[in-house]
Specification:
Blueprint (H helix, E strand, L loop, with lengths): L1 H9 L11 E8 L2 H15 L2 E4 L3 E2 L7 H4 L4 E7 L8 H14 L8 E8 L3 E6 L7 E4 L2 E10 L2 E4 L10 H19 L2
Antiparallel strand pairs: 1-4, 1-5, 2-4, 3-4, 5-6, 6-8, 7-8, 8-9
Length: about 190
């Protein structure tokens, strides 16, 4: 028995500290003033924004229409300051509180979806469990939404339809280029 344990221990992986990751936040909204306010609050919490996407039409689902109305928009930002990946659940809790703070008559006016990007993937935080999601803590799960292969981000079978579009792929490829330059300096 002791010999087998020693033999197994020999093949164990070595614990390593993860590189810091790039905080990315997606927004779904109707009112651009609410979007601007949300970004302002997030800048106070997370620092300078180093990438902001163009505002896109959000047409891939009507899931948010009952709460927000029709003709919804989508935007993404990333932050200059890198984070540790284990901060994701706390960040999701913070963004949920911001959504509540910006609500009107108990209805949200903006959806704020944090995640992070590293060299190989885009990870999103969610409050909803499903077969392909991993529990983090405090009621928050993580989903690897996109993976990086062949010089671009690619979807999985479970990836939301909007995240499979060329427009979103271009956004995340642009953010990754910023991140690559940042990690070269670490």
């Amino acid at each position: 028995m002791p010999y087998q344990w020693q033999k197994q221990a020999y093949f164990m992986g070595t614990l390593k500290k993860h590189l810091p990751v790039k905080l990315v936040i997606g927004f779904i909204f109707k009112d651009t003033k609410v979007y601007a306010k949300a970004k302002s609050v997030l800048k106070i919490r997370f620092g300078l924004i180093d990438f902001e996407s163009q505002i896109l039409d959000f047409v891939h689902t009507d899931y948010y229409e009952k709460e927000f109305g029709k003709k919804l928009k989508r935007g993404f930002v990333s932050f200059q300051k890198l984070i540790s990946p284990d901060e994701l659940s706390a960040i999701k809790i913070t963004t949920n509180k911001i959504e509540v703070r910006l609500s009107h008559q108990k209805l949200r006016r903006i959806n704020i979806d944090p995640g992070y990007l590293d060299l190989s993937k885009l990870v999103l935080a969610t409050t909803k469990d499903y077969k392909h999601r991993i529990y983090l803590s405090q009621g928050i799960w993580a989903e690897v939404t996109l993976f990086y292969q062949g010089n671009t981000f690619r979807p999985w079978e479970w990836t939301y339809p909007d995240y499979q579009t060329e427009a979103y792929t271009n956004i995340f490829n642009s953010i990754r280029k910023i991140y690559v330059e940042q990690v070269k300096k670490t």
